[in-house]
Amino acid sequence: MISENLNNLKKRVGNQVTIVAVSKKKSPEMILEAYQTGHRHFGENYVQELCEKNEKLPHDIHWHFIGHLQTNKVKQIASFIYLIHAVDSFKLLKEINKQAQINNRKINVLLQVHIAQEETKFGLNKAELYAIIGSDELKKMENISILGLMGMASNTENTEIIEKEFKELNEIYSEIKKRRLLNLDFKILSMGMSSDYHLAIREGSNMLRIGSTIFGERIN
Ligand SMILES: *Cc1c(COP(=O)(O)O)cnc(C)c1O
User: Fold this and answer.
1) Where do the structural domains in the chain lie, given as residue ranges?
2) Range 36-43 contact pairs with CB under 8 angstroms and sequence separation of 24 or more
């Protein structure tokens, strides 16, 4: 079932778009089933759960951390994480740089931009984003690579609202790319989940974070 879901999804979205299979609350066995189709990108939201799965599962998995990351937990994932999606403060960026340095590596991150109407969603507003991008301190952080932006649209049935939010994020992303405000590796736009990935692709997404469409609904 899982491998079928994943293969169907890949056919639908094409090979220009990276699918991060969101495996939070799903067992290592279920992840292995997806892995056996050749899939390598998996996303988790909880540090403890991610560390346990990383121990158990093959080491060529590219682990994405897609949840809200607390500064004091960065060190637990710093040695192996492939991409951290939801960086939304300078403090967190600094800690990631520090832990990357300790592990003698570079860590890839995305900056999370707040695009939804709901106040509860995390993320930087435009001013905060540009403040980080333009700061001198960032230039000195040699152990992080900012590869792109990530965002979550409002949780609504209203597709016009979702489209508008994705469009806004794509505009910010394109602006940063066009003006070369960050390095040349700036190339990832992570937006779209099970309910809205069609819209996200249409608005320029090149990385989807998809859980329930692949693994089935989460119970909790
Ligand atoms: C859980 C989660 C997803 C996947 O959600 P589905 O609706 O199951 O596809 C995507 N992004 C983030 C940040 C998540 O926490």
Assistant:
1) 2-215
2) 36/3, 37/3, 37/6, 37/7, 39/6, 41/82, 43/85, 43/209, 43/211
Beta pairing class for 41-44 and 62-65: parallel
Substitution candidate for ligand 1 out of 152, 196, 209, 218 with most atoms within 8 A of CB: 209
Supply the DSSP symbol for 103.
Answer: T
* 43 Cα to the center of ligand 1, angstroms: 9
89-121 pLDDT, tens digit each: 999 999 999 999 999 999 999 999 999 987 766
Q: What is the CATH number of domain 2-215?
A: 3.20.20.10
pTM passes above 0.70: yes
